[in-house]
Amino acid sequence: MIIINVLEADRGEYMMIIYFVRHGESEGNKKAMIQGQSEYPLTQTGENQAKQVAQALHDVGASTIYTSDLARAKNTAKPIAALQGKKAVESTLLREVFLGPLENRTREDILTSYPHINQIVTSGVEGTETIEALTERCHTQLKKWKKYHASETIIAVSHGGFISIFLMYLFAKENWHTLHRPFRIGNTGITRVRIEGDNVYFDYVNNTSHLAN
């Protein structure tokens, strides 16, 4: 059962809270490149954004900070973890979607070469990560979190494409790819999700108010 709720609700005894955070602006973002799992460092703007999101999350009481092992995510997670006196735990499950031949190219270049593509992260182009593999990643990560953090708050620093897919997975499990994916996550956008048993509550998606200044 999925419940969309923009209000702050009471926390149940066995409720897990997840703050999903997209990484700060990277050099790939600045150049309008489709990055996938290719490595790009944060820009100076991205480093500043990481510090701002760290301040925004400093009092959420997270027991654990998880991060994708790609550099742009790890370097976003560092100030978040440091401000809370913790060390971020790396997880390959939180990596961006692997896009193989589509990586390191602009969206316009990709669509010129593959005019049939509707969604780049789920294009089905040979050599890209399959829907089945993405589903398994979501399933495995959620299962681990439920096992170890059933009544805790955690922070997960990841990537725009994968976060949007994970949110769809929470909606529809293995059928997530059959639905329109409306989520667009900006650099250091925060999404708060609460999970209690089979109930999923979305408090907000892509909150970037910490970047107002």
Structure description:
The protein is of the alpha/beta class and about 210 residues long. The protein has one domain (about 1-205): Phosphoglycerate mutase-like (Rossmann fold), CATH 3.40.50.1240. Helix content is about 30%, strand content about 20%. It contains 6 helices and 9 strands; from the N terminus they run ββαβαβαββααβαββ. A 7-stranded mixed β-sheet has the order 1-9-8-2-7-4-5, sandwiched between helices. Strand 8 and strand 9 form a beta hairpin. Helix 2 (about 45-55) packs parallel to helix 3 (about 70-85) and helix 5 packs across helix 6 (about 160-170). The radius of gyration is 17 Å and the shape is globular. The chain starts with a strand and ends in a 6-residue tail after the last strand. The model is unreliable at about 1-10 (pLDDT under 50). It holds the Pfam family His_Phos_1. GO terms for molecular function: fructose-2,6-bisphosphate 2-phosphatase activity. One of its GO terms (biological process) is negative regulation of glycolytic process.
